[in-house]
């Protein structure tokens, strides 16, 4: 059977947006890249949404707070279809509860019993252990390892190569620095770095 490819717009026009564009190119012919929507063209895009009805979108922005703002703006304007973009080499258990607007890039390996919210970005070669809960609007950078039963409350940035040990909770909006090993719960809104991860000192 022949499927007509669905046009997908990428919200964002920076480097990460181009990486999402590359994933679309690498996908089987289900999706077709339709264009980038940068901050300056958002209004015109929303007008097009109201004229043309359902359009498929995915967010290509690497800062959790900005992902949330753009998501909120576009989700309330209805008629938009936030796809889950899953690279063919990414794997995860089919028992996962998966929201909308998530990106799984090449080499992501997520296992079983997962609950994943909306608008999360799983960058290259991230692993996610059993029964982890990922909230909304998280950015999980390349090579991060999230162990079993970890909870990310939402809007979290996990820096490249960091690890979160089993059963820990990363509070809403908290940031884990690149290369950190998190061995204790992290409070909402805080920034931790190092091995073992400690609160980043600010002057
Ligand atoms: C933790 C982080 C968010 C802090 O950013 P910031 O607030 O701009 O911090 P600064 O760069 O001003 O650094 C402040 C201090 O923390 C140190 N620091 C920064 N990041 C660190 C890290 N990941 N581990 C250990 N120390 C770190 C800096 O060396 C500096 O120390 P100094 O004051 O003794 O010189 C950021 O450095 C980080 O790790 N981001 C993740 C980036 C990432 O994953 N990139 C990959 C994209 S694909």
From TrEMBL:
Q: Which PROSITE patterns match?
A: HEXAPEP_TRANSFERASES (PS00101)
**Record keywords: Cell membrane included?**
no
The record's listing under InterPro entries reads: AcTrfase_PglD-like, Hexapep, Hexapep_transf_CS, Trans_hexapeptide_repeat, Trimer_LpxA-like_sf
* The organism's taxonomic lineage, starting at the top: unclassified sequences, metagenomes, ecological metagenomes
Question: One Pfam family name from the record?
Answer: Hexapep
Q: Give the molecular function GO annotations.
A: transferase activity
Q: Does the keyword Nucleus apply?
A: no
Gene source species: marine sediment metagenome
- Return the protein name: Uncharacterized protein
Give UniProt keywords alphabetically: Transferase
């Amino acid at each position: 059977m022949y499927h007509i490819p669905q046009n997908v717009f990428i919200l964002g026009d920076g480097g990460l947006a181009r990486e999402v564009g590359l994933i679309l190119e690498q996908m089987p012919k289900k999706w077709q890249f339709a264009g980038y929507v940068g901050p300056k063209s958002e209004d015109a895009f929303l007008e097009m949404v109201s004229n043309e009805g359902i359009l498929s979108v995915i967010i290509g922005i690497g800062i959790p707070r900005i992902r949330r703002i753009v998501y909120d703006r576009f989700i309330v304007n209805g008629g938009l279809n936030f796809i889950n973009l899953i690279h063919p080499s990414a794997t995860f258990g089919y028992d996962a509860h998966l929201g909308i607007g998530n990106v799984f890039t090449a080499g992501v390996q997520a296992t079983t019993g997962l609950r994943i919210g909306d608008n999360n970005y799983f960058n290259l070669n991230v692993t996610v252990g059993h029964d982890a809960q990922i909230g909304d609007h998280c950015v999980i950078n390349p090579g991060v390892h999230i162990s079993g039963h970890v909870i990310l409350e939402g809007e979290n940035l996990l820096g490249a190569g960091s690890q979160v040990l089993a059963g820990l909770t990363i509070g809403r909006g908290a940031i884990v620095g690149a290369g950190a090993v998190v061995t204790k719960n992290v409070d909402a809104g805080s920034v931790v770095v190092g091995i073992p991860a400690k609160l980043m000192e600010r002057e």
